[in-house]
Design a protein that fits this description.
single chain, alpha+beta, N Utilization Substance Protein A, Chain:P, domain 4, OB fold (Dihydrolipoamide Acetyltransferase, E2P), GMP Synthetase, Chain A, domain 3, 5-stranded antiparallel β-sheet, 4-stranded mixed β-sheet, 12 helices
């Protein structure tokens, strides 16, 4: 590079680092390493280095000699040293092409010591072309790295959060959701059963996984994860944001039914009413987003027996006993009218209640309990 080209290079580099947020020194150091490697490859000089003037942009190549002790042998001696296994140890001898002895070095500069280097400029006339090509490659590489790091900083902590994106592409197994600066992958198995996803439409998605271990950042999305229901409630109901309403747990059978346990430490707040909203307005928006999936909002209670009763809604008049607190096992007795409600279709209600409360729940009719000689005291 001539003087004009060097100034133009620095100016272009300044514009890029400002626009892309790349550290200028990182780019320049990477260029020096890349140019040094290119010079060694083309000219076969191992003891060489490339330096870029930070003020002028001028690029120079230097060959250097390392200062070594005067007593470093000039050739191999006859008295070879051997290691513990009897193998000959290769002797380190003086190499005049890459080294200079201390006494000779001090003839040029008395301040030199062992380990210092004497640099000689050896910049080839045509090195500007190599420098220009290498500079372009390094800048492009650093731009990609900076962009990737910036995206990781923006999305790296988004796991378990809800985002809004645009449906951009589709293949056999996935939808690709434009999240702004990158795309997330929404597998078709993770959309709500029966829903239709339209290209170009905006969609709410739950970030189930963020993985930076591969070549590209992977953002895996879901609309069937139970966390999606949790984030919908937090998004739609402001009392969750200010802490007056608390969410204990969520259990979900995507496309069919979800149960969510909520409570408040403020006795003046009705947690279920706050979630339902006036004339059902709040819960209606959530159900609409879930494409008609039924949602049971139940009150969490510190007493596990009461919590299990609530979780088995819409069944009522249940008798609950905790049979093993450590193993988290409970027995429930229901009358004839509420037994099928407690179990639910294909056992769904009991299964969701078990996941919501984290208790293994055994439900029996009053007749079954009598036959088996079970007599539970009601926890009502």
């Amino acid at each position: 590079m001539n003087s004009k080209e060097s100034k133009e290079f620095l100016k272009a580099l300044d514009n890029i680092v400002e626009e892309k947020g790349i550290d200028k020194e990182v780019v320049l150091e990477a260029m020096e390493l890349a140019l040094t490697s290119a010079y060694k490859k083309n000219y076969g000089k191992s003891n060489s280095k490339v330096l870029i003037n930070r003020e002028t942009g001028e690029i120079k190549v230097y060959s250097y000699l390392t200062v070594v002790a005067d007593d470093k042998p000039d050739d191999y001696s006859d008295n070879f040293e051997v290691d513990e296994d009897g193998n000959e140890i290769e002797e380190d001898i003086f190499n005049p092409e890459t080294e200079i002895k201390l006494s000779d070095a001090r003839k040029e500069d008395k301040s030199l010591n062992i380990g210092d280097t004497i640099d000689t400029e050896v910049t080839p006339k045509d090195f500007g072309r190599v420098a220009a090509s290498t500079a372009k490659q390094v800048v492009v590489q650093k731009m990609r790295e900076a962009e990737r790091n910036s995206i990781m900083e923006e999305y790296g902590d988004k796991q378990d959060e809800m985002l809004i994106g645009t449906v951009a592409l589709e293949d056999t197994d996935n939808y690709f959701i434009d999240l702004g600066r990158t795309n997330g992958i929404l597998p078709k198995k993770d959309i709500i059963p029966g829903e239709k996803i339209e290209m170009g439409s905006q969609i709410k998605v739950y970030v189930s996984k963020v993985d930076n271990s591969g070549k590209n950042l992977l953002i895996l999305l879901s609309r069937t994860h139970y966390g999606f229901v949790k984030r919908l409630f937090e998004h739609e109901i402001p009392e969750f944001s200010d802490g007056s309403l608390l969410l204990y747990s969520v259990a979900r059978d995507p496309g069919n039914r979800s149960k969510i346990a909520v409570y408040s430490e403020n006795p003046n707040i009705d947690p279920i009413g706050a979630c339902i909203g006036e004339k059902g307005s709040r819960i209606a928006r959530i159900i609409e987003e879930l494409h008609g999936e039924k949602v049971d909002v139940v009150r969490y209670d510190k007493d596990p027996a009461i919590f299990i009763q609530n979780a088995l809604s819409p069944a009522k008049n249940l008798t609950v006993a905790i049979t093993d607190e450590k193993k988290q096992e409970a027995m429930v007795i229901a009358d004839k009218d509420n037994f099928s409600l407690a179990i639910g279709r294909k056992g769904q209600n009991a299964r969701l209640a078990s996941r919501l409360t984290k208790y293994k729940i055994d439900i029996k009719t009053q007749e079954q309990a009598q036959t088996e000689g079970i007599n539970l005291r009601s926890e009502d």
